[in-house]
Amino acid sequence: MSFVVAPPPTVAVPVAGGGAFPVHRIYCVGRNYVEHAQEMGFSGREPPFFFMKPADAAVPVVDGETGRIEYPSLTGNLHHEIELVVAIGMGGRDIKAADAARHIWGYAVGLDMTRRDLQNEMKKQGRPWCIGKAFEQAAPIGPIVPIASTGELTHGAITLAVNGQPRQKGDLKELIWNVNEIIEHLSAAWTLQPGDLIFTGTPAGVAAVTRGDVMEGRVEGLPELRVAVA
Ligand code: MN
Prior knowledge:
By secondary structure, the protein is an alpha+beta fold.
């Protein structure tokens, strides 16, 4: 059978040390650090919840380079959310937290870019968040580092600076739902596949960026992610 339009290209995230990770789906966890949940008006005591971005929202950034995103349409309040990203190497469903680490291929630093004004409007109206979260270039991501070389990442600083000024600051040990628990909850709702990425939530300090800003995201033990807003 021949395709009637060109099939979409596979989105590939570079792997530190060589090779590429093909992206299947991008899952995201909402409000997963207490202080960030509080800054969004919540208690930080709710069960985990998820949303998705399309695979081609990923903007892979090569180690040592500065990625570029276009300022997106329809918004006047584009927010940065720095996050630890988990790359799934082995799929499965109903994975238990105690067994979850076997399913992790590696980790990266990612940005869950958010059209906050549109997201807030959708929240107010009880409508889906897609227009606020799942737009083009909404998921810049740095190189993926194999878990074989990092070990399980359970603590360590996670920070974001804009134009050299600190904005977000937290520690992976402050995740309300840790990575293994996220995988347990997520795989109860969807069958995880090799190639899935999970954005695990952002610490406090989310704020707006404008054209010309450069974001520098860091998670201890992983290559820095630098992204300019064009
Ligand atoms: Mn987020």
